[in-house]
Write a structure and sequence with these properties.
This protein is an alpha+beta fold. It has six helices and five strands; from the N terminus they run H-H-E-H-H-E-E-E-E-H-H. It is flat and about 75 Å long. 18% of the residues are buried.
């Protein structure tokens, strides 16, 4: 076998192996390139867990939809005066966008048992070009982590962890 043929065989084997690995990852819900939004959602979910190191995302269904400005301003973090709202609407070139990720995951609870859950993570963007890097901006199951933490029995400790 010539060197040229060996090279062709090696490249073919590597390509087939790569396709198999990527297909397996995709079918298991691990997309090779996870969006910034989903990564932030993962961190927000971990902040709520008793044992964050046991978090494992099993699957994700990510979508995006256009929303109205009224829907955008219903988020408590986006609350603004009427004058500010009007100014934002006037300068906006496109409608706001809401990102939604349905994330199936498993983790350990306080008793050490493995739990399987589904979280709905949302983020509203003025134009769809920004992605949250801090968990402060995303909502998990309709609630920001700061509001969730404030309701916990050990709120002071949890708030310190969430506000890192």
């Amino acid at each position: 076998m010539t060197t040229k043929m060996r090279t062709k065989v090696a490249i073919s084997v590597l390509l087939i192996f790569g396709v198999v690995v990527l297909s397996h990852a995709y079918l298991r819900g691990y997309q090779p390139f996870t969006s910034q939004f989903v990564q932030t959602c993962d961190r927000a979910i971990k902040e709520r867990l008793v044992v964050p190191s046991t978090y494992e995302r099993l699957g994700v269904d990510e979508s995006r939809k256009t929303i109205t400005f009224d829907e955008f301003f219903t988020d408590p973090l986006r609350a603004a005066s009427e004058a500010t709202r009007k100014a934002i609407v006037q300068v906006a070139r496109v409608s706001p966008v809401q990102y939604v990720a349905l994330i199936d995951y498993e983790a350990q609870d306080s008793a050490g048992a493995i739990i399987r859950e589904r979280a709905t993570c949302t983020f509203s963007s003025l134009d769809g070009s920004d992605m949250p890097e801090r968990t402060y901006w995303v909502q998990i199951d309709g609630e920001h982590n700061v509001a969730w933490a404030a309701r916990q029995p050990n709120a002071a400790t949890v708030l310190r962890r969430v506000n890192r």
